[in-house]
């Protein structure tokens, strides 16, 4: 049986469409009984996200650009007027200029390095600081999304690998700061997924096929499996887990070399 999220409510940030990892997580949290609010980036996404949010009974939808502190502040201000407390926040947000997600990492530029770190790492800290007052009385869960390009070299992942390493360290530092308030902070690390962000990485199709053919489970992650992991972490089932990076990749990360049939 799915662990219950009944009576819990929270904010899901990063749904762009029905392939988004944030959407898989939102559906699973909803199915487990949670009430949801959503944030999306810019009017262009509003028409996609609105019907998705409505289909889960949510009418709290906020346009948030995480590079803009005022935008994040306004969203949490609005959220706190509807819900004086929340139980979870999901941060499924990352960005790098596509031109630097292929070729040599050596060619990373300063502007894109800063921009990628700002959106993909710093924003989690800013969101955590805003979510904290809404969680500190009763405890809660903060979740972010990472990828194994943080600790292994994945060709083309480049600056995003460095950002994910920083994001995983951020997860541990936040977990330590917020642990005394019974707020748990964790990262989920799925294998490659066919999403907008995933498609921006050079050779995405090959990476997807390679993982499917070589992972111990001979399968890629699914939105359902990632969602199930989020429910585990956000529910009482994960009550003693914090500062963790949980892989949802069919076991791909344990490999030292491809399967013999693929050599
Ligand atoms: P996605 O494109 O569906 O989601 C990325 C989201 O980031 C979008 O909703 C986009 O609007 C948002 N975003 C980017 N810049 C923003 C800004 N300035 N302000 C607010 N929002 C902004 O792709 P996804 O694959 O679902 O990505 C979600 C998370 O999962 C990311 O952190 C990504 O790195 C991570 N992840 C993805 C994969 C994969 O293979 N797709 C694997 C592991 C981890």
From TrEMBL:
Belongs to the short-chain dehydrogenases/reductases (SDR) family. FabI subfamily. This is Enoyl-[acyl-carrier-protein] reductase [NADH]. InterPro entries: Enoyl-ACP_Rdtase_NADH, NAD(P)-bd_dom_sf, SDR_fam. Pathway: Lipid metabolism; fatty acid biosynthesis. It catalyses: a 2,3-saturated acyl-[ACP] + NAD(+) = a (2E)-enoyl-[ACP] + NADH + H(+). It comes from Roseovarius phycicola. Its EC number is 1.3.1.9. SUPFAM superfamilies: NAD(P)-binding Rossmann-fold domains (SSF51735). Keywords: Fatty acid biosynthesis, Fatty acid metabolism, Lipid biosynthesis, Lipid metabolism, NAD, Oxidoreductase. Transmembrane segments: none annotated.
